[in-house]
Amino acid sequence: MEKTWKPTTAGILAIIAGAVELILGTLGATGTAFFGGIFGIGWLSAIFAPLIVFGILAIVGGICALARKVWGLALVGSIFALIGPWFLFGLLAIIFVSLGKGEFT
């Protein structure tokens, strides 16, 4: 089967969304830990920890979509790219990964 643009586009979108999640999660966790320690609310940094994990999963899924390997992981990465205000990237990534399922090995 010939390669189309769908998995490539899905991978790029998932990687972008994952990178934003990872950066914001890291900044949020460190900033909240620092300022929370000063004001006695350091536990708030735990709220941002899942965002870091979700960002990593979205990036890994995006890489799988670009390589057209492990369709399930590419789909999971696209799903985790949904989380946040950039959910449109994740939604489009899910659609494109699903449409390009036949291209995965």
How many strand segments? 0
Mean pLDDT over the residues: 89
SS summary, helix count: 4
**Total discrete domains:** 1
Entry summary:
This protein is an all-alpha fold. Helices cover about 70% and strands about 0% of the residues. It is elongated.
Structure overview:
With 105 residues, the chain is mainly alpha-helical. It has one domain. It is built from 4 helices and no strands. Helix 1 (6-39) runs antiparallel to helix 2, helix 1 (6-39) runs antiparallel to helix 4 and helix 2 runs antiparallel to helix 3. It starts with 5 loop residues before the first helix and ends in a 6-residue tail after the last helix. The mean pLDDT is 89.
List strands and helices in order, with pairings.
Layout lengths: L5 H34 L9 H19 L3 H10 L6 H13 L6
Helix pairs in contact: 1-2, 1-3, 1-4, 2-3, 3-4
Keywords summarizing the entry:
105 residues; mainly alpha; 4 helices; 72% helix; elongated
